[in-house]
């Protein structure tokens, strides 16, 4: 049986030579926020009494003994601040001891 199009399949590109041009790389993501400098802890900061692992998006994870900086008091139970990686989020206030 013969098909309507008896042309051979397309040739493969040569090995080791210049192959097809790659598509353009996607644009670079914006830089991540920088961790606060050692002397820039904000007006309020605390030390973590226990490790806290974020349970939901928008929460902040930190390790026991880590400083949580730039704290804002959103309620008696939940505060917002930054960890040593410069990530911001909510955390339970009873997991930290306020230093300033």
| Ends distance | 86 Å
Strand content: 15-25%
Strand arrangement across the biggest beta sheet: 4-3-2-1-5
- Tell me the major beta sheet: 5 strands, antiparallel
- Share in helix: under 10%
Name the poorly predicted regions. Answer: none
Radius of gyration: 27 Å
Structural class: mainly beta
Instruction: Categorize the overall geometry.
Output: rod-shaped
Oligomer: single chain
**How many strands in all?**
5
Mean pLDDT: 81
Tally of helical segments: 0
Name the helix and strand elements from N-terminus to C-terminus, one letter apiece: EEEEE
What does this molecule look like?
Helices cover 0% and strands 23% of the residues. The chain is an all-beta fold. Strands 4-3-2-1-5 form a five-stranded antiparallel β-sheet, with no helix packed on it. A hairpin with a 4-residue loop joins β2 and β3 (78-82). The radius of gyration is 27 Å and the shape is rod-shaped. The protein starts with 45 loop residues before the first strand and ends with a strand.
Short description:
This protein has strands spanning 46-48, 67-73, 78-82, 88-92, 96-98. The chain has 100 residues and is mostly beta strands.
């Amino acid at each position: 049986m013969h098909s309507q199009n008896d042309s051979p399949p397309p040739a493969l590109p040569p090995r080791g030579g210049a192959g097809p041009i790659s598509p353009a790389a996607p644009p670079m993501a914006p830089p991540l926020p920088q961790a606060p400098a050692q002397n820039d802890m904000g007006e309020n900061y605390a030390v973590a009494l226990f490790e806290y692992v974020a349970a939901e998006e928008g929460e902040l994870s930190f390790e026991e003994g880590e400083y949580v900086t730039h704290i804002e008091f959103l309620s008696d139970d939940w505060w917002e601040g930054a960890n040593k990686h410069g990530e911001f989020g909510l955390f339970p206030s009873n997991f930290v001891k306020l230093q300033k």
